[in-house]
Design a protein that fits this description.
Immunoglobulin-like; 0% helix
């Protein structure tokens, strides 16, 4: 069994959305339900949490194992970041990937974490394009 993480947003890797960079992710946890990633804040404000969507796929397989990138905010996740991420700081953040079926353990997995928004220190939501 081989694990891989790919980050694709408009064909760019690692993901950078308006100054938020996500890279160096490693799947972890029982059932590979989490990814530990380095997140860099290249904005001019502190980040207290990040809203994101996830897809988990297997190359050459038509249907994803997990897909929360549907346009519905009900299918996205918020990851709180204890202590936040100050401007120009990089910290490790754990992302929930959703429930990956046990039969996926026999396949190579590719997880795509898509940052959608972040909250600043006062709780204001900044949407990312």
């Amino acid at each position: 069994m081989r694990l891989a993480l790919a980050f694709v947003i408009c064909g760019v890797s690692p993901i950078m959305a308006e100054g938020v960079v996500i890279e160096n992710c490693v799947l972890s946890g029982e059932g590979r339900m989490f990814a530990a990633c380095d997140v860099s804040n290249q904005t001019n404000t502190a980040i207290s949490s990040i809203r994101y969507a996830v897809t988990v796929t297997t190359p050459n397989r038509s249907v994803p194992w997990v897909n929360t990138y549907t346009g519905s905010p009900d299918r996205t996740f918020f990851s709180s970041i204890p202590g936040g991420i100050e401007p120009n700081e990089t910290v490790e953040v754990y992302y929930q990937l959703g429930q990956i079926p046990s039969r996926a353990s026999d396949f190579d997995l590719v997880a795509e974490i898509i940052p959608l928004a972040f909250k600043d220190v006062s709780g204001v939501v900044v949407e990312l394009d």
